[in-house]
Amino acid sequence: MAASSTFVAADGTGYEIQMGRWSRILAPRFIAFAGVASGDRVLDVGCGTGNLSFALAENSRIGAVVGVDFSSAYVDYARSRSNDPRIAFHQGDACALAFADGSFDHAFSMLVLQFIPQPELAVREMRRVTRPGGTVAAATWDARGGFVAYRLFFDTAAAIEPGAMERRKRMYTRPMSRPGELESAWKSAGLTDVVQDMVTIRMDFASFADFWAPNEGKDGPIAEYVGTLSASDRVRVREGVERAYLDGEADGPRSYTATAWVVKGKVPG
């Protein structure tokens, strides 16, 4: 089962600091792109700490939202945040969803497919559990070309510490994160009316300390890398990234764009 996810997950609070605060901004824009205005049951695959599920449930015309995530720690955190009886969270595998065919009106996945070694299998599972005529939609970061905060870190680290180069290559070439990959996967899964586009948000940091704090945690690819460094290398990388963040100016707020690839398609029938 461990092969179904490469994302390092420790606890929900850590994920919220690392990515949850940005997924809350992305979620409503992703939903608007998908064009889903109603549905008796909607599935959120790779729900993490629940931000997409909660955004979906803000629509009173959504009858129920079921979130599934590989990490039991994230599922527990999402449950602790929920007081809406329409929302349920379960631990599960995106590549082997524990639902019958056609169980949902729509299936969504946000910021998770790039961390699944066999993402095509997860896409087929999303299609399988969605009824004919329902929408299957996903979003993944454009890590190579559109995720400025991650590029700032990995480009800088790779110039300082040799081991970062391999991490950098892995980050920029994750599956389903490059032009056309989502569209191709949706069409290969037999989905129709497939549309791929881009959605851009801004990531606003109050200071370098705010930018760096998630890297000292245990969640996500940057923290995973930083955790492998010796004390001296960690200082060198941190100082280099700080210089890149400051750009010769005083410490303070910075705002970086982050672009996600988004795709949607219909289950035929």
Please tell me about this protein's structure.
It is a single chain. This protein has 269 residues and is of the alpha/beta class. The chain has a single domain, classed as Rossmann fold. The protein has ten helices and seven strands. The chain has a seven-stranded mixed sheet.
CATH superfamily (homologous) name: Vaccinia Virus protein VP39
Strand content is 15-25%
Helix content: 40-55%
CATH class: Alpha Beta
Strand order of the largest sheet: 3-2-1-4-5-7-6
Provide the domain count.
1
List low-pLDDT spans: none
Order of helices and strands: HEHEHEEHEHHHEHHHE
Average pLDDT, all residues: 96
Examine the coordinates and then state which fold CATH places here, giving the name of the CATH topology. Rossmann fold
Number of β-strand runs: 7
Rg result: 18 Å
Q: Kindly report how far apart the N and C termini lie.
A: 32 Å
Q: How many helices does DSSP assign?
A: 10
Estimated structural class: alpha/beta
CATH architecture: 3-Layer(aba) Sandwich
The main sheet comes to: 7 strands, mixed
What is the molecular shape? globular
Task: Describe the protein's topology.
Elements: H1 12-34, E1 39-45, H2 51-57, E2 62-69, H3 72-81, E3 87-91, E4 104-110, H4 119-128, E5 130-141, H5 148-160, H6 163-172, H7 181-188, E6 192-205, H8 208-212, H9 220-226, H10 231-246, E7 254-266
Helix pairs in contact: 1-2, 5-6, 5-10
